[in-house]
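pasting for ref
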Amino acid sequence: LPDAFRSLVTVCFGRTRVVVPCGDGKLQVSGLIQQAVTRYRKAIGKQDSEYWVHVHRLEHGDGGILDLDDVLCDVADDKDRLVAIFDEQEPHHGGDGTSASSTGTQTPEIFGSELGSNNTSAFQPYQQTRSEE
């Protein structure tokens, strides 16, 4: 019976996975994201209002991007696993010292490209060469 149908999906925030009940599946993807973020913040113990998590998009297991306006039952099946592409205020560090999200923590490219482009070390004093002698 369609009236008795209840769905749930698992939303993955890095290594942290939260199960979100979706009722009859008529929930929009944007609403799913809000519920998933609330559950994720609770799961990592960061429920204070100053801690932010921003989900850029949800992706299906095959890599397809879900549209925020889509109704969940049209784009996902019961017990599907969806991946959140997200940033957060400070990556959550689990007990093993690994980050739940590496998104937004890359080293600025300026350091790798500028220092690696010449042979002069940034930690040695500059020495002027005299080619006229």
